Amino acid sequence: MSPGENKIIGGNARLVRNINRAAILNLIREQQPISRVKISRITGLNKSTVSSIVAELLENDYLVENLVLDNHVGRNPYQLQLKTGRYFVGAVNIDSRLIRAAIVDIDGRVKMKSELQNTFSGPQEFVGAAVDLVNRLQKKLTIKELVGIGVTIAGLIDQRSGYVTVAPNLGWKDVPLGDLFNEHPGCNSSVYFENDAGASALAELWFGTGLVKSYSNFVFVSVGAGLGTGIVIDRKVLEGKSFAAGEFGHMNLFDHGESCVCGNEGCWEAYASDRATVRRYLEKTDKKIDESNPLLIQDVCSAADKGDKIAESVLKKTGYYLGLGVSNILRALDPPAIVIGGRILQSWDIIYPEILTGLARRSFFGLEKKVMVLPSSLKERPRLIGAATLVLREFFSDYRITK
Fold this sequence. Notes:
The protein is α/β, with parallel strands linked by helices. The protein has twelve helices and 16 strands.
């Protein structure tokens, strides 16, 4: 190990306490409202340790406690839950068409959000617009400071430094996005980075509801202007050595197929992304592209809802292509669940049967019968909530094991 590398340090009382503190805080986040007795039982920590750490969290305004009246018990318990309205995070999602920003409470609820159309000439203008947008939202809510700001983008990005190796849909290559944010005079918070598919998977992991919540392993397929996937294994998002884990959007679906923005041909993204769906619809209806008023995936979905048979057939084809791509994910990872996210969920009833058809078409050994294909359970855009979750992940894991 070289002298400049991080070294693991041995345990000490303060480190152990911080780890226990993070464990208790996360347990409260996941199971609130919850009593001290239940926390002790689940974590295995003694009651005095739990009480001491909870007292610290209450003092720091992380938690609130409420007395629960129950005539069936001798002593009514105090239930703990996160204190909202005290700590806030900023969230930014940059895509090829616009910038989205939001202020989010520590329980994942969006307090205010806004967006700007893409009229920017380069990364520096994108960053300036994003910072100004977050600052305006923060001012409207009269919030003095943010815990941090999370930023998501479709492309290969080093989550530690924010360095963008490539973002095809934006036309970016070798962009020091982290430096641009950190050096911007209006950015007064720590900034965290991730590609939008990985962040979407993280958001689903933290704030997913219903059946999705029961899975600790799944693959999130983010369908947008591009197509990416986030891989969750044992409740952690897989990054990869070069932060390229999950780039299934650019796996080959057909030899000598449609051209993709990455420069290759036949990529999954070239067939199943929103851009591909809209393109097929325009081709079949002979409509011309209007840059001043572009047709969006939600327009195609709305047309299908109103009985447009061409729109319906185009969406069915997209569903089929999604299924073909998912079959390759099954071969590679064999996950118990696939979660689909994006605006195309507006037409879930149309695309879902076709996803299963495409999946069965190329699957093998009956794997398609063992996987659950689910729509994202998030009410807000996963990639925007994912940006906020990047900060919340740090907030709820406030301990260090390296120096």
